[in-house]
Design a protein that fits this description.
125 residues, alpha+beta, Nuclear Transport Factor 2, Chain: A, Archaeosine Trna-guanine Transglycosylase, Chain: A, domain 4, 2 domains, five-stranded antiparallel beta sheet, four-stranded mixed beta sheet, 4 helices, 19% helix
Length: 125
């Protein structure tokens, strides 16, 4: 999402931050962080929305729970035709004939957000 990450942090309904807890990155408001600080770290399971986690090799893996927050600010998007939606959701590759639209200047092998033709986010690609 590039520079649009600022939009996630400075929202009209308050300040939001990313917090690391047990190798997972959580997205939550400052108010929730204040409430969570009352509990010891060992007893705290989670707080906010989990955006992803760091693997044992220290690579970041994005979770599907972050899709609703990231989708409006994504730079590169693709839209699938109705017959290709189900194939994508079952984990199959999307063929070129299943693409409805693509944002301009999308680099090859770059991460995208996958949408239906009705602008409903389906996942990452």
């Amino acid at each position: 999402i590039g520079d649009n990450v600022r939009m996630l942090l400075e929202r009209p309904d308050g300040l939001y931050t990313f917090r690391l807890h047990r190798d997972r990155v959580y997205y939550c408001s400052e108010a929730i962080i204040k409430y969570a600080s009352n509990f010891p770290r060992k007893e705290l399971l989670s707080f906010g929305t989990c955006f992803g986690r760091f693997t044992k090799t220290r690579k970041f893996r994005l979770h599907i729970t972050a899709l609703d927050f990231i989708a409006p600010y994504a730079k590169f998007k693709i839209w699938l035709k109705p017959n290709a939606e189900q194939q994508f959701l079952y984990g199959h590759n999307v063929v070129k004939s299943g693409l409805g639209r693509i944002t301009e200047n999308t680099p090859k092998y770059h991460g995208v957000i996958v949408y239906t033709m009705n602008d409903v986010p389906l996942g990452f690609g």
